[in-house]
Fold these 3 entries.
Entry 1:
Amino acid sequence: MKNVLVTGGAGFIGSNFIRYLLHTETDIHVFNLDALTYAGSLENLKEVADDVRYSFIQANITDTEFVEQFLAKHKIDTIVHFAAESHVDRSILGPRQFIETNVMGTFSMLEAARNIWIQPQNQPLENVRFHHVSTDEVFGSLAPGEPAWTEDTPYSPNSPYAASKASSDHLVRSYGHTYGLPYTITNCSNNYGPYQFPEKLIPLIILNAIEGKPLPVYGDGQQIRDWLHVEDHCEAIHLVLTKGAVGSTYNIGGENQPANLTIVETICEILDELSPASPHKPHKNLIQFVKDRPGHDRRYDMDTHKISVELGWRPRHTLTEGLLDTINWYLAHPEWVTAIRQQQAYQGWLDANYTSR
């Protein structure tokens, strides 16, 4: 990797990956292409903004002509494609944007890579890589006792978001098989950690608890997820890029299976210990059960055997350690929270999604 294009690099996972890449690699230039929609913010990248190895470009991935020109001009050899609409709840309320960004946007990126890398073959194909970041939600939902998903599990998406990501995965594979595009795909579980947009479950619960607001929990709160610390995710992607087999897919998970209610209660317990003088203690009294979302998947579980055996990766963070690290980060960065809330209007969406439910 010499010239790396990260799409959606101003978002939660993308910005963490850019910081990880600049910290890990020395002889590299990272280009961040982001449209700066509601969940993307340059506040996430202030600490690397002046790094000579980093450049930001505000543009939309659906602009194929621009992306083609950019790939050629900067001799991009690696594309790490994060850019996506990623919130299931938002996809239920407004699915169109998910099709436009996740399906058509990925198609646009693939076309640009094909037109610059493959047709004129400006670079040897062994020197380029298209890496697509996807989700475990493409696999659907597991019943109690069912084995965890492997890379060979058939797709069965249940939400507009999951369907859009499944579609983009299929497009990437098709460009590899039909045109010879060197690609890899990773399917990750639920991410959490620093810089996550405050509408997602873990930061929403942390910030609401700190402020004494209700802690909304869908249904009975027994939906089971696998939780992956974003730093572990970044390390896994880097390993796939540097050591993973072209044309392969790798599952990435945190190796845990708590219920959502357990996550919320654990956050409350940690905050009780960190803030013993809080007027909102015990924070679990703020928990408020709300109507479940339509078609809510009951259980996810990732089999990470392949990436462990082939690349030697396992998550470094336990869930308890990761939650403590994340809570401490939010407590230590109130200025980031304020800037994000001022910059990105999301209160109306929270009201529509929780209060109106």
Entry 2:
Amino acid sequence: MDIGNIALAVVPIFFSIVFHEAAHGWMALKLGDDTAKRMGRVTLNPLPHIDPIGTILVPIVMMLMPGNMLFGWAKPVPFNPYNFRREVPIRKGIMLVALAGPVSNAILALVFSFLLVLSYKYTHNMVLLKFFQYGVLFNVLLGFFNMIPIPPLDGSKVLMGILPPQYDKYFMMMERYGFFILIGLMATGALSILMYPVNYIYHFFIMIPTYIFG
């Protein structure tokens, strides 16, 4: 990926990561926990969310590597499930907070896909087309990747909220090794297989506004 494409990709990638983390904090706040809000994390201001390595360095390095695999993260949003409203079961609340991140990326992917199709239909501006294309692609990838049920990814908390409590001990054990498993999968290139389902989901999102606008 050349410097021009990197410059176009940085903004939607950066915004999507920030939006993902803010969504976690927003959902926790809706459930009754204001921890993230008090720490200034329920915001689209990127500064409180920036992790110098995960938000800036890693995405740039990944874009420079062959295979077009994009990856990045921001500072995790803190929340306290014991602050949830009394009627919110803790397991369900944790699951909803985790799910808010990938759902936010699905929403952004849909927004970017509409902008992409409308831009193609009315302007044919290649810079805008590339910008919106990266917006769709990275949000699909970020949302899909985070739904992998390996801690500390959101998918592990979603699955834990669905399965009976007796499986919690396995997730607790996975918490100790999950990050190293992910690093191993990245180092061996095994995560590149994600690009196959991501590609199908990407085209599905593009198909929605294409069908609407003809």
Entry 3:
Amino acid sequence: MKTSLVVLAAGLGSRFGGDKQISNVGPSGELLMEYSIYDAIKAGFERIIFILKEEMVETVKKKCGDRIAKKAEVCYAVQDYSSIPEFYKIPAERIKPFGTIHATLCAKPYIDGPFATVNADDYYGAEGFKLMYDAVSSLKDNKTAVIVPYILGNTLSENGGVSRGVCTVENGKLVKILETHNIRLEDGKVNSDFGIIPIDTWVSMNLWGFHGDDILEMEKYFHDFLRELPEGELKAECYLPKFVNTKMEKGCDVISFTSGDKWFGMTYAADRPDVMARLQALHDSGAYPEKLF
């Protein structure tokens, strides 16, 4: 049994205008997700599971996977429509993937113990992975899950709106999370599709931790989601935050750990220069070695 990190890297990158997951941003050409993987392995994670589009697998192997495999077990899973259950008929016009629950489920063949999820296009910092590893390693059953949230004001892009899971945290526990879209700065305030949000609100960046049994619960949740979709639906996605809300409604405790690290990431192509500068500064400060792997 190994503790796994599931790297969600199969998104379309429509706002970025390409496959940002394999964009070279580190001083030695590192991909942004390599920093999460480096920090996760250092924290104790033993297995890295990439969730990719099929055409990206060989590229990721060559760019980083083969080197990472010298430090931890590496697995590759493809998120495509072949993993959709037979009872659901996919509309011929559908292009979008089915969201982060479907992506995580693609890792099912490789999960035999506790696991965490991360976005490939986000930088989380080393502390978040240490907190996450310590927490998921001690989970006794799937009646408890884990989140490491970040401050909303530190997760915005100057180049357009972003989507975040807006969290309500009380006494160290998550009590509610709302998937919120088009969050953007306007006239010094943070606006969204649901209105103004306090800038110091906690938000999810998909740094979740689960007991191994949760993968089976996710599968049932996803199948129920598909059964409830209107015929011909082309865009609906099944998200991790909504799954967690359902777990909490059933009595699951979601422990929330606060990381002091600063998040940054790439939503738009215009975010890339800032990400490159921040990573260079982290290397210059000694936070990371000259080459990660």
